[in-house]
Amino acid sequence: MGTHERRSREKDELRRKILDAATRIFIEEGYENVSMRKIADSIEYAPSTIYLHFRDKVDLVTSICIEAFAELDRRLDSIIGQGLPPMETLRLALREYIQFGLDHPAYYVFVFCTPQYVFKDIDPTSFSNIHTCAMGSFQRLRTGIQSCMTNGDMPAGDVESISQSIWLCVHGVTSGLVVDCGFPFIDRERLIDESLLRILKGAA
User: Fold this and answer.
1) Same domain, yes or no, for 36 and 76?
2) Which of 22, 48, 127, 154 could form a disulfide with 148, with the two C-beta atoms 3.0–4.6 Å apart?
3) 9 and 78: one domain?
4) CB atoms within 10 A of CB 83
């Protein structure tokens, strides 16, 4: 590996380290209580190093959200690209959504479970960028629902209301498994399969 490639990789690794630390601290201490210095201290870097990668907390939040949705989209597109029947594609995509939350619990809680009012200092442009990414991910669900209706797997209906309802159900499963509440759940894989069976059976 050449010097340029090594430096580029080290830069990417530091950026990821900052994002991971910021996400964890935002959840633990609350967004409003966290400063750039506190994030820098947590990874033992000078605040000036953080500012080389991110302008401020708003830039950090925007990056966390956009990169989370980008990773989710990559996973969903991989499922969609397999060309399976619509209902099987939808089932696997919903399962991959849950797996995304389990693989990245801190990111999931921060991006999908933090009330919007917490980020009242986010400027309209940053908010619009985050919203666009979120709606892009949600559109994949809408498209999947419509495909199931067109294929006869689901009765025709209001795609928007059905998509939102299914997302809320799957979000409930994901957040319930991501946040350790101490409930004595059955085997996790079995529980996920059972939950998706019930959700999709109700929509069919």
Assistant:
1) no
2) 154
3) no
4) 6
